[in-house]
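Memo to structure team: turn this sequence into structure tokens by end of day. - J.P.
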Amino acid sequence: MKKTALLLLASFLSIASISLLTPHNTYAASPSQVQVDKIDHAVTPIYGGLLLINDTIKISPTTENATIENFSIGFPLKYKTNFRFSMAYNATNFDEQLDVVLDTGLGVTGYYGVTVVFPNEVRDLLYNGQSYTFTVTFVFSNLIDSSVDQVFTIDFPTYPSLAQESSKCNVIVVLPKNANYTSNDFPFNATKKNDCYYLNHTKSPLPKLTHMSTKVSFEDSFACFSMNKMDREITIDTNGHISVSELFLLKSKTAFELSKIRLPLPRDARNVSAFDEQGKKISITLLENETSTYEISLNLAESQSRSFTITYNLFEENHLVQHDPQNYVLTLDLSENLRTMPETFIVKIIFSEGAAIQSFPEQTFSIQRGIFQETLSLSRSNLTWLQNEQWSFSYSYSIFWASFRPTLWATTVVIIGSIIAFAWQRPKPPIPVSVVLVPRKTLSEFVETYEEKEKILSELEQIKRKARKGRISRRRYKVRKTTLENRISSLSKKLTDLHQKIMSGGAKYADTMRQLEVAEIELDNIEADIRRIEVRFKRGEISAQTYRRLLEGDLRRREKARTTIDGALLRLRE
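Reply from structure team:
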């Protein structure tokens, strides 16, 4: 009885151990109808310690009308703990991305495999007997070791592991520029071009399920480090200027002390500065203009962690487009200058006060709304430059906000100063104060001009609606629109002149004009908010109940702002 129980237990443990070695995802190996004509296995060490392997594979069907839906490729299982990221794409067009299923295996134990799933157009191509070439990219970490004499050694899969034989496999190792190659036992053919070593080897044919590793050494001012955190803050000011601050937290994995490290920045970065943990400025110089790579003076001992900050500005014309006086579109490539893989990547985009965000990638970013300011934030792990993620954000902004904050501060200072002066001033005989009166004609002219401008704006909005509904011809709409816009521009200039005259008439008038300005800004923001929730409702992003609730709130705020404007005009009219 005991013997039977022991046998059952042994069987159970055997099955359990096999299941642990077998990939969790069950995915069939590549179909038998496909043959591998050629594969290029390119190995590139990346400054910072990542290892990039690109496998470019040319396949073709072995039978007529073959149904080829996917293809599997992998590497020996010992590299699984070093594997970080994989992607696939059309070898001639990086933008044609292919779906990749991870951890699918190759049908036998001892390998880590991924499966590339082909879209319908590729399946049709193969079905019609044509060949197809695609690239599978693998990113590994901790496969580059260093020694105190500045020799770096790469450990990598010599060949790709396939479920079937390949007619030919070209292996190429591209060493860093200006590195000195240290020969090893593997029969590489080393050539040097433009100060860069290329190690070549051809295997023909390449047997299926190859399981081989190779080490290559080189001497260079290379560096290996992990990036524990990268915290980026992007600020757009009232004039559309874009400033960036990036906080890096690095840990050295190099066996000797580093005096400098290299990091790439966006190609249009300007006014670049660097600061250490205490905020002290440190040296940063442009090392290579082509790749916009900078060298930072930063003493970093083995296994030491240090943080530093880099600040720079971006050319707004490359990222910011103004569609009309109040609407803007911001475009950012947030992974452009990543040549490392941050464990934590945080981005915060701070818009100027008064800006109202219209649209953003809601699946990726979260929004925080303050009283006067809105901010977008993102937190990701293991992001690389290969993901090539580019995002667009649209927002509205009124030029009145540029003067709102200075006016608010100036008013606060005046009030505080008046209170202090009043509290400390000794009683004195009353001194006659001359009051500057604004002529009644000026006040009446301002009110009439303001109301005329509002009337024309209303008429302009009406003809826009008629044009959208096709009630007036396009030619008539353009003529009438140009006429009204010219009239609005003329009235705006006149209102500006009258506004300055009234503001100089004393605190009574200045306070009324400021109330009018704040109410106008509030009204512009409310109108933008109404348009935004209408767009979200049409897209199905919010329910009808939420739409009505938000709309009712905005309508109440709009009525309140219009009441404030009417009250200000009434006081000026009296």
